[in-house]
Design a protein that fits this description.
With 223 residues, the chain is of the alpha/beta class. It has one domain: P-loop containing nucleotide triphosphate hydrolases (Rossmann fold, 3-Layer(aba) Sandwich), CATH 3.40.50. Helix content is 50%, strand content 15%. The structure holds cytidine-5'-diphosphate (CDP).
């Protein structure tokens, strides 16, 4: 059955700024916001805590099915524990892209992801929002930036938070994750033919937000 609740799907590589852009677009439009990567991060976080290997597809799938997660007021809660910071650790980022390779893990999360499609609308960010989860999204954006621009952004974020960071290490990790995410067999990160390319290498967040909003308004005028 066709779902008429509008969706804006924003896919792209890590540290492209898509989370911030998607969140602000959702705020401006009064839409819900889905950070789909959070679910892959939580599977990795629980797996690490329970010593389940990132190679164990059925163990990871069990974790994905049982995740007790709640998103509330910009915070993420896992079985009642606030994990918003813990799930952003670099080890969890790498773990997320390892667990995300498995078809069964992805299937186990799919219904949860689709359940976020609620009126008046949804802005969803990730890798396969426009290709697999919401293929009928009214607007699809492929948001990217050069690896150097993305590594620089992540470096600044970490330094601002008072955390230790090395630019060359970040660039290396980001390239590894890009490679894994875009070459995997299941739901790889690729620009869809019906997605609009948004390269933010030389743009700030507000310019990117304006671009997405103008694409959305253009759609509304045409329909
Ligand atoms: O914030 P950042 O872009 O660094 O990562 P994220 O969106 O939180 O996603 C973490 C990892 O989850 C990615 O590297 C992907 O491997 C995986 N992921 C995915 O496979 N599909 C999605 N829809 C979202 C994330």
């Amino acid at each position: 059955m066709q779902n008429s609740v509008p969706v804006i799907a924003i896919d792209g590589p890590s540290a492209s700024g898509k989370g911030t852009v998607a969140g602000r677009v959702a705020d401006r439009l009064g839409f819900h916001y889905l950070d789909s990567g959070a679910l892959y991060r939580l599977v990795a976080l629980v797996a690490a805590r329970q010593s389940v290997s990132f190679e164990d597809e059925s163990g990871l799938t069990r974790i994905a099915r049982l995740l007790d997660v709640r998103f509330a007021a910009d915070q993420v809660w896992l079985s009642g524990e606030r994990v918003s910071d813990a799930m952003r650790a670099e080890s969890v980022s790498q773990g997320a892209s390892l667990v995300a390779r498995f078809a069964e893990v992805r299937m186990a999360l799919q219904d949860r992801l689709r359940a976020f499609r609620q009126g008046p609308g949804l802005v969803a960010d990730g890798r396969d929002m426009g290709s697999v989860v919401f293929p009928d999204a009214q607007l699809k954006i492929f948001l990217t930036a050069s690896p150097e621009a993305r590594a620089n952004r992540r470096y600044k974020q970490l330094i601002e938070k008072g955390m230790d960071a090395k630019l060359d290490v970040l660039l290396d990790e980001l390239r590894q994750r890009d490679m894994r995410d875009s070459t995997r067999a299941v739901a790889p990160l690729v620009q869809q033919s019906d997605a609009v390319l948004l390269d933010t290498s030389h743009m700030d967040i507000e310019q990117a937000v304006s671009f997405v909003l103008s694409q959305w308004q253009a759609k509304a005028v045409l329909e």
